Structures are given as C-alpha cells and as structure tokens.
Amino acid sequence: MRKILLFLVILLVIITGGAAQKQYVLSSRNILKADTVWVFTPSDYPANPTKKYPLIYLLHGWSGTYHQWNDIMDCQSYADRYGFIIVCPDGLYDSWYINSPAIKQSRYADFFFIDLMPFVTKTYRVDSENVFITGLSMGGHGALYLFEQKPDLFRSAGSLSGVLDLSVSRNEYRISDYLGLQHEKSDDKELEAYSVTGNIEKIAQSGKEIIFSCGTSDQFYAINNEFRLKCNEYKVDATYISSPGTHNYAYWKSAIGYHFEFFTKRIKSL
Fold it and tell me: Average pLDDT in the 128-138 region?
C-alpha cells in the first residue's frame, strides 16, 4: 500500500480556442485539506500529441488562492504566448510552502514534491529538463525555498516581492505558529533554517541561475536588497530587477513578464 494516498477529482474543464484549462482537487496525507490546482496548456497543446512542453509553477501570496495569478495576468494568454504549461496550486492560505515542524499534517513541501509534481508529470506532456517555478510574496519565498530543497527538479526559479527572510515577519502572517516559535532568541536558528536567505548556499551549489524582483516602495524591498548582497557574497548567478512599484497586483502584473522572458531564454533544447 502506498504511504501517501492521493485522490484526484477534475472539477472544471474550460475549452477556449482549442486550449484547455483544467482544475483539479488533490487530497493527500501531507496536507490538512484538499488542494485545488489550476492548469493552463498552450493553444497548440492538443495538436501536438508527441511534443513535450516547458512548465512553470506559479505560487500565490499569503491569504491568496490558486486563482490569484489568473486574476493578475490572465494565465491562458501567457501559456499561449510563451508556450508554457502553467500550474497554479493553492498554497492553503498561509502554508508558506514548507513542512511545518509544529503543525501535524501541514507538510506542504512534501505535498509539492511527492504528490503534486508527479501528478502533473504523469498527466501532462512535460519537458522535465525545463521546469521552472516563481511566485509572489509568500509564493516568492515558497518558489525559491522549494528550489533550494531540490534544485535538480528545476531549470531555474524566481521570486516577486518575496518574503525571503522570515525573521522580519516572525510575529506576523502565522509564521511563528507554523514554526512553533516561542518568541525567544533561540528561535533565530529555526527562522534561518526555513528562510530562503538561510539556504542560499544550496542555490550556489546548484550552479543554476535565478531571477528575483521587487518594487522600490514595497514593504519587503529591504529584504530583497539584502538578498542581492547575499547572492553576491555566495556568487549566485542572480538577476535582480528593482523598479518602481509596491506590494500589489499592478506591480506583479508589470513584473511577471520579465520572469517568463528570463525562463524562456534558459530553456534547454531537447
């Protein structure tokens, strides 16, 4: 018997100009409640039954849902324009995309690697050499954190307005609850262990390129600037885009295109 039970239910299929959008509900022992996942395929996907496609995971921010990215940018148009399969999972409001050491059955990283990725690879014609991941705010943290844990599974990764150092928000956004912190100095090691900044050496060791961006009026701008310095220190090949903007949909809509362009240029030929 499998240790992890995964139940799949197709909720919705939308056919528009030959391109299918599908929503799934995935239940797993790794997460407290079912996860809704919205998948967009390029317009030429049905016409090319043997072709494999690059794929990008888009992770939403704190308090968002699986449809946040589509509300921002119209994912179908990006799938058509860039030829990517786009996968938008639900981060379960405030999971931080981590395995919580304090909350039983809140192991989102395990869900992502053990359940979600294999399901997507089995269901779609994915070019496994060209899998990318990025996200906004909490999702920016999640994208780079998951990339750090298993860089071999991704070609590259990114972050928009990412909370890349959890210590700056330790008493907000349920971070302390998820990590089981007691608001003591000793908690700093736990915060570092689950932060992108605390695992940057893993990006350096991978030898892979990343991209991250943040608006100059964003509340997490200082964190991103500090992460840029960390990248320089560890000799991480990173592209950092700092431009006018704040922590809102308008900025993320303006910035996401740079990530797609960056990833497109790094697609490895079959």
Answer: 98
Does residue 164 contact residue 224 with C-beta atoms inside 8 Å? yes
- Which pLDDT does position 178 carry in this prediction? 87
Confidence (pLDDT) at 20: 81
pLDDT of amino acid 169:
80
Contact 138, 96 (CB under 8 A): yes
Q: Length of the chain, please?
A: 270
Are residues 53 and 129 in contact, defined by beta-carbon separation less than 8 angstroms? no
Kindly report the CATH class assigned to 7-265.
alpha beta
End-to-end CA distance of the chain: 36
Instruction: Indicate if the pLDDT at residue 226 is higher than 70.
Output: yes
Q: Which residues lie below 8 Å from residue 48, measured CB to CB, with a gap of 6+?
A: none
- pTM for this predicted structure: 0.93
